[in-house]
Structures are given as structure tokens and as C-alpha cells.
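Researcher: Here's the sequence for the chain we discussed earlier.
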Amino acid sequence: AFDIYAWDARGHGRSPGERGYSPSFMTSVRDVQTFVDHIDDVHGVPVEDLHIVAQSVGALLVATWAHDYAPRVRGLTLASPAFDVKLYVPFARPALALAHKLFGHFVVNSYVRPEVLTHDRARIASYKADPLITRPIAVGVLLGLYEAAERVVADAQAITQPVQLLVSGNDWVVRRAPQLAFFERLG
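Model: Thanks. This is the structure I predict for it:
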């Protein structure tokens, strides 16, 4: 028997605060550690007994946490980690960085539609109807996501926990090559 614990990232799901906002990507990484500590403190489940499953941006948060905090987890399952989010507007990243530098905090809405995530009509309908799905993302978090991803993929050998990596054959949201490079470099 095992227990399942789920976490709503800051600004997502039922968590409080501005939708899609975190002070920084690394604040959200620290939140992963806070959640793991909570599971141990409240439920008595030590990190050594945890197997963490995460997808997309959550998978990047967990990969960054595994890299920076070196927890002795039982294992990680990372599904389509967002090591390189496809921005379909030319020069979007440098433009967002400049706007963030000039204007400070603001959010952009995700272009991700449920039809690019699944072909299952019931899942598409539930995604569209789910009030807890957050489309906005703070630009500072998005920019921090790219910085963390580049660092973690380049230094993946520092991650020595068991990792199962699920990579989509045809993904409209994240690029495949950085996921494969990450896997090849894992310690």
C-alpha cells in the first residue's frame, strides 16, 4: 500500500495568490522542498520513501530541485519536462526579457490548448471546463524557467537519483532534444 500526495504550485489550482505568479522560478523550486518537508512532518513519510511524479513545468521544478537539493528520494518520474518551451513568436524570449527589465512583473497567457495535449475528447472537455487550470504565467517565472533548464540539462550528471523520463514523440509544447540530452547526461 502507498499514499499519494498532490501539490498545487504557488498561484495554481487551489493555492492562494495571483494566478500564475511566483516571486521567481527558484522560489517555486524551494516550494518543492517545503512540500516534501510537510509530507515528512505531518504524515511521517521521509524523503527516502518518496517517488515523485511530475509533468512539464512541474517536471522541470522537480528536476531542478533534485539537482540543487540532492534529495535521497526513491525515484523520479518526469513526463515531458519543460526544458525548452516552444515559443512560436520570433524573438519572444529576448523581447520578454527586455519588457520584464523595463516594466517589472507582468503575466502572459499560455498558448497551450487542450487539443495539443491529448486526442481524448473527454479529457479535452474536462480541461476546458476545469476552473483550476491556470493560463497566466509570470514572465519572471518563465524567464527563470529557461535559465534553470539550461543549467540543469548542462549539469544533469549531478542528479544521481533513479529517474524515469517520459518523452513524447510529437510534442507541440516542449522540445524533445533537451530532454534526450538531459537523459544522456544523468549521473
